[in-house]
Design goal:
The chain is of the alpha+beta class and 84 residues long. It has two helices and two strands; from the N terminus they run αββα. The chain has a two-stranded antiparallel sheet.
């Protein structure tokens, strides 16, 4: 739960979404996994679910790397405050 909270806070700090959706969907795998999805009123699937409503569009590799770097930077900062 601490990791989920850290990811949620990183998404909020990085993207300032209109809504943050969390979903524990795992019917196809035995382990728990939680989806964290930053949603915006102008995203292509709003207000419906993102699954099956995104026209299959994806970020470029460069865009994805930049997003991962931004989130990673925020998570790195948050870990400074959560270490025992």
């Amino acid at each position: 739960m601490l990791e989920s909270q850290a990811v949620s806070q990183a998404l909020e700090a990085t993207f300032r979404p209109d809504k943050l959706n969390l979903g524990a969907l795992g019917n196809m795998v035995p382990q728990l996994h939680i989806h964290h999805i930053a949603r915006f009123k102008d995203d292509m699937a709003w207000p419906g679910p993102v699954w099956g409503n995104t026209k299959g569009e994806q970020r470029s590799d460069e865009e994805q790397a930049e997003v991962m770097t931004r989130i990673g930077n925020v998570l790195s900062l948050s870990s400074l405050f959560t270490r025992a």
